[in-house]
Amino acid sequence: MRKFLILFFISISFWSCSKHPTILVKTDGELVRISDSIEKNKELEDFILPYRKRIQEEMSAVLSYTPKAMFKSDTKLNTPLGNMMSDAVLEMANPIFEKRTGHKIDVVILNYGGIRSGINAGEVTTRTAYNIMPFENEVVIAELASEELKALVNYLVKNKVAHPIAGLQISLDAEGLLKEVKVNGEHIQNKNYYVATSDYLIKGGDRMEFFKKSKSVHSLDYKLRNLFIDYFKKKDTIAPKQDNRFTKLQN
Description:
Elements: H1 2-16, H2 42-59, E1 62-66, H3 80-101, E2 107-109, E3 122-125, H4 126-132, E4 138-144, H5 146-159, E5 165-166, E6 168-172, E7 178-183, E8 193-198, E9 216-223, H6 224-234, E10 246-248
Parallel strand pairs: 2-8, 6-10
Antiparallel strand pairs: 1-3, 2-5, 4-8, 4-9, 6-7
Helix pairs in contact: 3-6, 4-6
GO biological process, one term: nucleotide catabolic process
Domain 5'-Nucleotidase C-terminal: 74-212
Organism: Psychroflexus torquis (strain ATCC 700755 / CIP 106069 / ACAM 623)
């Protein structure tokens, strides 16, 4: 009897280890619509509650104040919101870059499409920074030859979109053609320039192909969203304006 049992279990083992493929013969699915009618799981809710409260407190923390609402569609070529964003990058990233490399940032360019929200008048909170920059993009500095900087300017002239820029002064004639361009008050010279942007654009995102010819790229390990949070904390009141950094003569 004992030998029989041993042989039986050995046979079962060999059978279970056989190489017959497992075949899916049927699948079932059901559409469950998410709504308030679904009963909450109290145990799960109790577990999440302290984390939710902590996140809500952090997201609602007041960092600054703005007397006027700002949206990326407010004006053409340059907007108060875009100017604030590019100026923030220049102000917050430049000291870090200069300390690490001994060079200063000459120009900043972000992309219009990357601005995902406006800023309402009143309190500026941590949530504000998450709304305008929900992505995990980081600040990088590209070293561009003068020819690539000119390609950057031509890109802006051709697109005529209010991409956030700083350090550049671009003037178009009444026909929309380039009349004059300066970098921090000076004409473009035959030298390399340091341009702050995002790790998305540095790879040619938004058709900014000129970045692919960068002589060097420096990462600051600084997320754009965190930079804006730090900038808001630094400023009691935020009130940027449209200025002359990108203009077009009227007929």
